[in-house]
Design the sequence.
C-alpha cells in the first residue's frame, strides 16, 4: 500500500478514536444537559409574590412588613381585574342576577319594617318593589333588546322616588343600569356561551380546586383544600404559560377531511368582542408585572425543605437526608465486608474449582434484576432475620442498607479482588522477606497499594447504593412519612422519590422543575460523594509518598 | 471491624433515644397512593404527634403487607382476590373493604385525532390487534400505536374486564407502568390510543366517548360511563371506633375528605 | 503463592495496632501469634463466609421461588411459547418473546457500544498523553455514576419524542431507544476493561511494530488488538451482562410489547425484556399465585444466561492474564 494512503488511513483512525470520546462527551451533555437545565430551575427562577406568600404560609419564611406592602400593591393592581369580571358577570349571569333581585326585595321589606313605616306606606312600597323585581326578572330572562330597554327604563324612572333613597333598593337601579349596558353590547342569544367562556377565563385566572390559576383564589373566595391551588402562579414561567392560555384559545380543527386535525390558535379576546370584558385581555398582559412582581429568586432551601402536596411546593430535604443515611450505612456494611472478603479470597483461599464456581456465582448476581433484591431483602432481613434478632419486622433504613449492601457486595468484592491481585508480587515478597507477618504485609503493603482500585470499587458501589430504587421499594422507602428518628424507621429517598413522582401523581406532572430538581439533586449527591472518594484517594497517595 | 463496633454503639444510642409515637402505616396501590398522600398530609396537620407513612408498592404487595401485619391500611385499586382472602384468613386477618373514591378509566387519543367516539367493540378490536389503522374507525390513514398499562395493574384489570371482555390483547400492544407515562406517550404520539385515570385528562390528550358516553364526574358516578371502578382501603377487621385507622378510613365521608379526593383527580362517592 | 501455607503470625495484637510499628518481628507477637493465627483466620473466614453466603442466598431465593412454577407448568411451553398472558383466566406463561427480547436489545446495544468502546479505549491508552487522559477519564466515570432513573427519564422524555419526529417512527419507545441507552450504560464497563487489556500489553509489542515502520492504525489493528483480544472479548461480554441485567431503563424505554420484531432487523418496534417483565409485574402479582413464581422462573433463566456469559468472560479473562503474563 502506498504511504500516503496509509498515512491518511492512520489519520482517519486517530480522528475516529478522538470522535468516539467526543461522542461520549456529547452523550453525557445530552443526557445531563436538559436534566440539569430543567432541574436547576427548581432552585433558580423568577419567583412571584405568590411564591413569597406561599413561603410565608407554609414555611414561615418572609420579611413580613415588606411582603405586606407588596401584597397591598399587587392587590390594588388586581382589583381592576376583579371589577371587570364582576361587571361582566352581572350582565350575563341570569341566575345570579335574579336571585340578587329577590334578595334586594326581601331585604327592602325587612328594612321597611325596621323603620316603622306606616301600614299604607309599607304596602305601597312593597308593591312597587315587587313590580321592579318582576320587571327586572323579565328583562333578565328576555332575549329581546326592545323589551329590556323598556323594562329597564320603567325601573330607572322610579330611581329618584324619595322612598328608595338611602335604602337597599338603590342597588336595583345600579343593577338595572349595569345590565342594560351589558345587554346593549352582547349578543343576547349567546348568554350561555358567554357564561361558559367566562368560567374558563375565571379558572385560568383564579384556579379551581384541581389546578392553580394565574392570580390565585380571589380574596373572598372559600379556602381550597390543597395548598397547590391556594396560590397563583408562583413562578414567572408558570405565569407566562397561564397568560398564554388566557390570551389564546386553542382548538383542533379539520383542514382536510381524512387528515389529522390541526391546532389553531385564536385570540380569546375575540370571544368577548365589544363587551365589558374585552379590556381585560389588554389589561392583564400589560399589568401582569404589577400583579405578580416577579423577582429573581435563589431558593437554596430546596435542599432542606419538606414538601407539600406530593412535591408541588417545597423541596427535597427529607429525601436528601434519607438517601445520605442509607448510602452511608450501606457503605459501612459494604466496604469492610467487601475488602475483607476480597482479601481472604485472594490471599488465603486456595485457588481451585470450588473458588471459581464461587466467584462465578458472585458475578452472576449482576443478572439479577434489582427488584428481586428488594423481595429478597423483605423476605430475608425484614420478615426472617429481624424477628430473630428481636427487632420489629418492618421496613426500615437498616433493612434497606443491608439489602443494598448485598446488591453491591459483588461489585465491591470483584473490584477489591482485582485491585489486590494486581499489586506486584515483588512488593509482598519484599515485605515477607523482611519477616513481616502475612497479615501485616497485607495491611502495610498490599492494602495501600491496592487502595486506588478499592476506591474505584467504592465509587461504583456508592453510585449504585444511592441511585437504586427497586431494592428499597420493599425494604425501607416510603413516599410520605416523618423524618426518621432511628435506623429502625423507614425513610424517604431521592431515588424512590423521583420514581414516585414519575409514576404516581397528576400533581407531579404539573411541576416538572421539581421532578427534575429531585433527579438532579440525586446526581449531584452522587457526584459529590464520588468527588470525596477521589479526594480521599489523592490524599492517601500523598500520605504514601510521605512515608 | 472498628467501624462495625462504632455503628453498633451509635445504633444502640439512636434506638434508645427513639420515642415510640403512635404510627399509621399505609401500603399498596400506586393509583390510590395520591389519595392516601393527601389524607396523610391532612392528618399530619391535625394530629402532629402521629407518624404516618405511605408506601406505593402495588396492590398485590399492599394485600400481602396487610396479611403479614406490615401495614395498618392497604390501599388497593382492585378488590382482593380469593387467594389473598384465604391467605389473610389463614393468618387471622379479616380484610374489610372501604370504598374511598371512584376512578374513571378514560380512553384517550392525540388531540389531532378527529375520532371522538368509539364503541367498546371497536376499542376491543384495536387492543386485540384486529384494527391497526385509524382509517378503519373513521380517522385519518395512520397506524395505531396501542398503549396499555402493565398487565398486573388494577387499571389494566378494570380495562380488561370492562372493555376487553376477556379477549387477549394483541402482541403489538405497548405497556407503560403508570398513568403519567401513558399520558406522556399519547401526548407525544400522533397515532396513539391509551387509557388513563380521569384525573389525567387535560388539553394535551383527548378523551373519546365510549359507547356514546363522554367521561365526566356525572356519568362515572352514576355508572353510565362503562369503564369505571371503585378504589379501596382494606383494614384488618372493621377499625376500632375512634382509632386513627377508623378516622382515616371514614375521612372520605367528610366534606374535606371529598374535596381532597376531587383535588387529586378522582371522583368522590357522594355529591357534597 | 496462594497455595502457600500461613507460616507467619496473624494475631489479635497485630490486628489492633496495624500500621504503626516497624516491619521487624518481635518475639512476643510471634508467641501470641501462634495462638491467634488460627483464631484470626477463623474470624476472617467467618466474615468472608457471611458476605458470600448473603450473596449465595439470593441465588437460592430466586431458584427456590421458581420451583412451584416448574413443578406445575413444566419447562417446555415456558421456553417455546410466545404467549405471555399471566393474568388471563387461563394463564399462559410463554417466555420466548421475553428471552428473545433481552438478547435482542443487548446485542443491538453491543453493536453500538463495542466499536465506540474499543476506539475510546485505544484513544485513552495509545493516543493521548496522561494529562489529557486524566481529563477524559472522568467523563466515562460520570457516565457510570448517573443513576438509571435519570437514563430512564432521558429515554422517555427526550429520546422517544425525538426519534418519532426525526425518523418518523410510529413509536419512540422501541428496541432502538432501549439499545442506545443500554449502549451508553454498558460503555463505561467496556471502555475500562478493554483499556486495561490494551495497556497491559506493554511497550515491547508496540515498539517492535513501530520500529518496523507500521503506522499507529496498523499497529493497533494488526498487533495490539489481536494480542489483547481475550481482554477485549471479556470486556464485550461484561458489557453484555450489564445490558442484560439492566431493569428500570429497559422498562421505560423499550415499550414492553410482547412480540418478536418482524422483520427481525426492524429496531423501530417495541420489545419486552425479561428484567422489565419482572420489574413491571412483580409488585402487583399476588403472593402464592403461579404468576409470581413464573416471574421467578424468568429470573432463573436470566441467571443462567448471566452465568453462561460469566463463564465465557472468565475464560477469556484468564486467557488474557496468561497472555500478558507470558509477554
Sequence:
Amino acid at each position: 500500500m502506498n504511504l500516503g494512503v496509509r498515512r491518511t488511513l492512520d489519520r482517519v483512525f486517530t480522528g475516529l478514536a478522538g470522535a468516539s470520546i467526543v461522542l461520549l462527551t456529547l452523550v453525557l451533555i445530552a443526557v445531563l444537559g436538559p436534566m440539569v437545565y430543567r432541574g436547576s430551575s427548581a432552585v433558580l427562577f423568577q419567583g412571584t409574590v405568590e411564591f413569597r406568600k406561599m413561603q410565608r404560609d407554609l414555611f414561615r419564611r418572609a420579611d413580613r412588613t415588606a411582603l405586606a406592602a407588596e401584597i397591598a400593591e399587587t392587590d390594588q393592581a388586581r382589583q381592576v381585574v376583579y371589577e371587570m369580571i364582576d361587571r361582566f358577570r352581572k350582565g350575563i349571569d341570569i341566575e345570579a342576577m335574579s336571585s340578587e333581585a329577590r334578595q334586594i326585595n326581601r331585604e327592602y321589606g325587612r328594612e321597611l319594617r325596621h323603620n316603622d313605616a306606616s301600614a299604607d306606606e309599607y304596602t305601597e312600597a312593597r308593591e312597587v318593589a315587587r313590580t321592579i323585581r318582576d320587571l327586572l326578572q323579565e328583562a333578565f330572562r328576555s332575549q329581546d333588546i326592545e323589551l329590556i330597554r323598556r323594562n329597564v327604563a320603567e325601573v330607572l324612572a322610579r330611581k329618584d322616588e324619595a322612598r328608595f333613597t338611602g335604602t337597599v333598593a338603590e342597588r336595583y337601579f345600579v343593577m338595572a343600569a349595569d345590565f342594560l349596558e351589558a345587554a346593549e353590547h352582547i349578543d343576547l342569544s349567546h348568554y350561555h356561551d358567554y357564561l361558559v367562556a367566562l368560567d374558563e377565563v375565571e379558572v385560568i385566572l383564579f384556579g379551581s380546586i384541581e389546578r392553580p390559576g394565574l392570580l390565585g383564589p380571589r380574596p373572598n373566595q372559600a379556602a381550597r383544600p390543597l395548598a397547590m391551588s391556594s396560590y397563583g402562579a408562583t413562578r414567572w414561567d408558570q405565569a407566562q404559560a397561564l397568560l398564554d392560555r388566557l390570551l389564546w384559545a386553542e382548538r383542533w380543527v379539520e383542514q382536510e377531511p381524512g387528515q389529522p386535525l390541526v391546532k389553531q390558535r385564536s385570540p380569546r379576546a375575540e370571544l368577548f368582542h365589544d363587551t365589558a370584558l374585552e379590556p381585560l385581555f389588554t389589561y392583564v398582559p400589560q399589568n401582569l408585572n404589577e400583579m405578580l412582581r416577579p423577582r429573581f429568586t435563589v431558593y437554596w432551601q430546596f435542599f432542606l425543605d419538606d414538601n407539600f402536596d406530593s412535591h408541588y411546593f417545597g423541596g427535597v430535604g427529607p429525601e436528601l437526608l434519607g438517601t445520605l443515611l442509607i448510602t452511608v450505612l450501606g457503605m459501612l456494611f459494604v466496604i469492610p465486608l467487601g475488602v475483607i472478603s476480597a482479601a481472604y479470597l485472594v490471599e488465603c483461599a486456595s485457588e481451585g474449582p470450588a473458588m471459581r464456581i464461587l466467584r462465578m456465582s458472585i458475578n452472576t448476581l449482576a443478572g439479577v434484576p434489582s427488584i428481586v433484591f428488594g423481595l429478597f431483602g423483605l423476605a430475608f432481613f425484614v420478615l426472617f432475620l429481624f424477628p430473630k434478632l428481636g427487632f420489629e419486622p418492618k421496613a426500615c433504613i437498616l433493612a434497606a442498607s443491608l439489602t443494598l449492601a448485598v446488591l453491591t457486595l459483588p461489585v465491591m468484592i470483584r473490584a477489591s479482588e482485582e485491585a489486590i491481585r494486581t499489586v506486584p508480587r515483588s512488593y509482598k515478597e519484599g515485605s515477607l522477606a523482611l519477616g513481616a507477618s502475612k497479615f501485616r504485609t497485607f495491611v502495610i503493603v498490599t492494602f495501600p497499594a491496592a487502595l486506588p482500585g478499592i476506591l474505584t470499587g467504592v465509587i461504583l458501589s456508592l453510585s449504585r447504593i444511592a441511585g437504586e430504587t427497586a431494592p428499597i421499594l420493599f425494604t425501607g422507602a416510603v413516599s410520605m412519612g416523618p423524618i426518621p428518628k432511628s435506623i429502625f424507621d423507614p425513610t424517604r429517598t431521592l431515588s424512590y422519590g423521583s420514581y414516585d413522582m414519575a409514576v404516581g401523581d397528576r400533581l407531579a406532572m404539573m411541576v416538572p422543575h421539581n421532578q427534575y430538581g429531585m433527579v438532579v439533586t440525586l446526581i449531584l449527591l452522587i457526584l459529590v460523594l464520588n468527588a470525596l472518594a477521589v479526594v480521599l484517594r489523592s490524599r492517601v497517595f500523598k500520605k504514601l509518598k510521605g512515608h | 471491624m472498628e467501624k462495625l463496633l462504632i455503628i453498633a454503639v451509635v445504633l444502640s444510642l439512636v434506638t434508645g433515644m427513639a420515642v415510640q409515637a403512635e404510627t399509621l402505616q399505609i401500603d399498596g396501590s400506586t393509583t390510590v397512593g395520591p389519595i392516601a398522600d393527601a389524607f396523610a398530609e391532612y392528618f399530619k396537620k391535625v394530629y402532629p404527634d402521629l407518624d404516618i407513612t405511605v408506601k406505593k408498592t402495588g396492590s398485590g404487595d399492599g394485600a400481602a403487607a396487610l396479611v403479614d401485619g406490615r401495614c395498618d391500611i392497604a390501599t388497593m385499586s382492585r378488590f382482593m382476590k380469593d387467594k389473598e382472602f384465604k391467605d389473610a384468613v389463614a393468618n387471622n386477618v379479616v380484610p374489610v373493604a372501604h370504598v374511598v373514591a371512584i376512578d374513571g378509566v378514560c380512553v384517550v387519543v392525540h388531540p389531532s385525532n378527529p375520532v371522538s367516539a368509539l364503541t367498546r367493540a371497536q376499542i376491543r378490536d384495536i387492543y386485540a390487534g384486529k384494527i391497526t389503522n385509524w382509517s378503519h374507525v373513521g380517522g385519518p390513514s395512520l397506524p395505531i400505536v396501542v398503549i396499555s398499562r402493565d398487565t398486573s395493574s388494577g387499571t389494566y384489570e378494570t380495562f380488561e374486564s370492562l372493555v376487553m371482555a376477556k379477549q387477549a390483547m394483541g402482541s403489538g400492544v405497548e405497556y407503560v407502568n403508570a398513568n403519567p407515562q401513558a399520558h406522556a406517550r399519547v401526548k407525544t404520539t400522533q397515532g396513539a390510543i391509551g387509557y388513563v385515570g380521569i384525573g389525567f385528562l387535560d388539553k394535551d390528550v383527548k378523551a373519546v366517548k365510549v359507547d356514546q358516553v363522554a367521561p365526566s364526574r356525572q356519568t362515572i358516578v352514576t355508572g353510565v360511563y362503562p369503564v369505571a371502578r371503585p378504589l379501596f382501603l382494606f383494614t384488618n377487621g372493621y377499625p376500632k371506633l375512634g382509632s386513627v385507622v377508623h378516622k382515616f378510613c371514614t375521612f372520605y365521608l367528610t366534606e374535606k375528605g371529598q374535596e381532597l379526593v376531587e383535588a387529586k383527580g378522582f371522583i368522590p362517592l357522594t355529591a357534597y | 503463592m496462594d497455595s502457600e501455607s500461613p507460616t507467619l503470625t496473624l494475631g489479635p495484637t497485630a490486628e489492633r495496632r496495624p500500621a504503626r510499628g516497624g516491619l521487624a518481628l518481635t518475639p512476643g507477637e510471634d508467641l501470641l501469634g501462634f495462638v491467634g493465627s488460627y483464631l484470626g483466620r477463623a474470624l476472617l473466614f467467618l466474615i468472608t463466609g457471611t458476605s458470600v453466603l448473603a450473596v449465595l442466598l439470593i441465588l437460592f431465593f430466586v431458584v427456590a421461588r421458581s420451583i412451584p412454577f416448574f413443578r406445575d407448568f413444566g419447562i417446555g411451553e415456558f421456553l417455546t411459547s410466545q404467549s405471555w398472558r399471566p393474568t388471563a383466566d387461563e394463564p399462559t406463561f410463554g417466555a420466548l418473546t421475553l428471552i428473545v427480547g433481552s438478547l435482542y436489545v443487548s446485542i443491538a446495544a453491543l453493536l453500538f457500544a463495542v466499536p465506540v468502546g474499543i476506539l475510546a479505549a485505544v484513544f485513552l491508552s495509545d493516543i493521548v498523553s496522561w494529562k489529557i487522559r486524566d481529563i477524559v477519564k472522568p467523563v466515562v466515570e460520570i457516565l457510570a455514576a448517573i443513576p438509571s432513573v435519570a437514563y430512564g427519564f432521558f429515554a422517555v422524555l427526550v429520546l422517544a419524542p425525538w426519534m418519532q419526529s426525526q425518523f418518523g417512527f410510529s413509536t419512540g419507545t422501541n428496541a432502538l431507544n432501549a439499545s442506545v441507552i443500554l449502549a451508553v450504560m454498558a460503555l463505561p464497563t467496556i471502555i475500562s476493561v478493554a483499556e486495561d487489556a490494551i495497556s497491559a500489553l506493554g511497550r515491547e509489542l508496540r515498539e517492535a511494530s513501530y520500529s518496523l515502520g507500521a503506522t499507529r492504525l496498523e499497529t493497533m489493528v494488526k498487533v495490539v488488538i489481536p494480542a489483547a483480544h481475550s481482554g477485549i472479548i471479556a470486556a464485550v461480554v461484561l458489557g453484555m451482562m450489564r445490558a442484560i441485567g439492566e431493569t428500570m431503563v429497559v422498562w421505560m424505554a423499550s415499550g414492553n410489547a410482547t412480540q418478536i420484531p418482524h422483520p427481525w432487523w426492524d429496531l423501530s418496534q417495541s420489545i419486552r425484556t425479561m428484567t422489565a417483565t419482572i420489574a413491571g409485574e412483580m409488585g402487583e402479582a399476588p403472593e402464592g399465585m403461579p404468576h409470581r413464581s413464573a416471574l421467578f422462573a424468568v429470573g432463573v433463566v436470566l441467571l443462567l444466561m448471566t452465568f453462561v456469559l460469566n463463564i465465557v468472560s472468565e475464560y477469556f479473562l484468564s486467557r488474557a492474564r496468561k497472555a500478558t503474563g507470558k509477554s
